[in-house]
Amino acid sequence: MADSSSSPRDEEPPGLNTAVPQTARIWNYWLGGKDNFPADRQVGDQVLEAFPAIVENARASRAFLARAVRYLAGEAGARQFLDVGTGLPTADNTHQVAQAVAPESRVVYVDNDPIVLAHARALLTSTPEGRTAYVDADLRDPDHVLQEAAGTLDFSQPVAIMLMGILGHIADDDQAQSIVKRLVAAVPSGSYLAMNDGTDTSEEVVEAARIWNQSANPTYHLRGPDRIARFFDGLALVEPGVVSPPRWHPDPSPAGLPAEIDSACGVARKP
Ligand SMILES: C[S@@+](CC[C@H](N)C(=O)[O-])C[C@H]1O[C@@H](n2cnc3c(N)ncnc32)[C@H](O)[C@@H]1O
Predict the structure, then answer these.
(1) CA-based angle 60:226:21, to the nearest 5?
(2) pLDDT tens for residues 92-127?
(3) Is the Cβ atom of 65 under 6 angstroms away from ligand 1?
């Protein structure tokens, strides 16, 4: 982990100040999107210089999200999704992938960045059989997230909780663990947790996190794969367990297993 200390930037919800680089917009920049500003691109480029693999990392993380949702809606039979830390709309948003498999899927998106809220309309298209909703809330208040999501999701039925690229924004390990436990406690047996986050597995990514934490909002805290695996304690991990995202249910390729990136992900079922 590059930095385990909390800073005032961790405490403030992001404002619409375009001069302060924001995670959703920097992520959008690396993914080739247009919803970002000079301050976001400046930090994005500094990170890119220290860690050129970040673009591949962002794309591989989104590709994992799509494969995980396809698995959840398909093989696992999930029909309800709680996607916390949604990010700006891009290709293959959760509801599009889920509803392509099961049109009746219900999806609640949650983010605390006003710019994501401003773009939420693009996330709120739905099949007539399904439903999508957007909740402007902070993961650090999981009770509020659950309360708002209950307007769309039926918490007596299984829910797939998705935490993709967001737990690194919670610096304190105990706080991150307790948030995950609270969310998992609110869903019944047969629900799922899918998550993905950056790992401290190369010098370049550790340097990238250091650069990020000098100015970007909120700060990002890398964890080791073993610490990421602990978020799944008490749950039954789907094979192959906690792995680097390109190695989770990869599309078959004659080239063999894809290269790893500095992230760890997994999908697990609540027994
Ligand atoms: C790195 S992006 C990941 C976006 C998307 N999940 C993906 O995997 O492509 C992290 C997202 O989490 C959101 N976020 C960060 N901290 C948050 C918090 N405490 N509560 C809600 N959303 C948060 C950011 O605004 C951003 O949209």
Answers:
(1) 50
(2) 999 999 999 999 999 999 999 999 999 988 888 999
(3) yes
